[in-house]
Amino acid sequence: MKIVLLGALALLAHTCTAQAKVTPPAKPTNMHTQPVKAATAPAGKDSATAAKLPVKPKAVEYADIDLDTVNPPLPFLIKAPVGSAVTFDQGVVITAPDTTFAIIVDMSYTEMPATIAQRRKDAQDNPMSVFSKFIIDKPEALLYEANNMGKKEYHFEVARDIKGERYYIHDQGVAGRSFTQKQIEAMMKAASEAHPKQ
Q1: Which of 62, 137, 180, 197 has the highest Cβ tally under 10 A?
Q2: How would you classify residue 68: left for phi > 0, otherwise alpha for psi between -120 and 50, otherwise beta?
Q3: pLDDT for 93-122, tens place per residue?
Q4: Domain that holds residue 66
Q5: Any domain includes 41
Q6: Where are the beta strands (DSSP E) in 129-180?
Q7: CATH number for the domain including 130?
Q8: Does residue 121 contact residue 134 with C-beta atoms inside 8 Å?
Q9: How far is CA 84 from CA 9, 78, 102, in A?
Q10: Coil, helix or strand at residue 91
């Protein structure tokens, strides 16, 4: 009996020691215990997590402006962004609401306007806006690049013959703004398409 009891006690002591030395199981390495990277949804699937794409600017809507209604009246129409203001400052000035479009039908001359050839020379000789290159160089139209205090800027000149009169149209300076080539091209297109009222 004594031997059986001693044997039982020895077995119990061995079991307790063995349990004390048991190494706890390793922590699971699943998504519940490890940092989870934010899922990236494919573009267009989830607007909350999809990468933000650049927003394409809305196309500018153009409409004919009747310059026969301004003072002094001019007998033609010219396209400009909807909502453009028409004012007078040494000529008829048309300016878009966001100032990305600003042209003038120049009337500052005391004599006949300078020819496009003279405007070409003036562009090349301007000490403030240093001429770089002509992008368009035609007898009745110029588009050129210049450098003003280290910044590129663009300008255009267009001559239009309408109802027996010659009109000179070019970009109008806006304080604090230099026009991009694309903006100048849009203005030049509008000026080149100026046409008499039907």
Answers
A1: 62
A2: alpha
A3: 999 999 999 999 988 765 555 688 888 999
A4: 62-196
A5: no
A6: 130-138, 141-148, 151-162, 165-171
A7: 3.40.1000
A8: no
A9: 103, 11, 9
A10: strand
pLDDT digits (tens, 9 = 90+) for 146-191: 999 889 999 999 999 999 888 999 999 898 888 999 999 999 999 9
Residue holding tokens 């030395």? Answer: 21
Number of helices followed by number of strands (H, E) in the chain? 3, 10
Torsion sign (Cα): 178, 182, 188, 190 = negative
pLDDT band at 140 (very low <50, low <70, confident <90, very high): very high
| The model's pTM | 0.68
Name the domain count of the chain: 1
pLDDT-above-70 percentage for the chain = 68
How many Å apart are CA 51 and CA 140, to the nearest integer? 47
Question: Residue 133 forms beta bridges with which residues?
Answer: 145
Q: How far apart are CA 132 and CA 143, in angstroms?
A: 11
Tokens of 96: 């878009």
Whole-angstrom distance, CA of residue 36 vs CA of residue 88: 64
> Which tokens sit at 68?
């026969």
19 belongs to a structural domain: no
H or E segment to which residue 15 belongs: helix 2-20
CA angle centred on 57, ends 155 and 186, rounded to 5°: 25
Is residue 25 included in any domain, yes or no?
no
Residue 129 backbone dihedrals phi, psi, to 5 degrees: -110, 95
Phi, psi of 122 (to 5 degrees): -60, -40
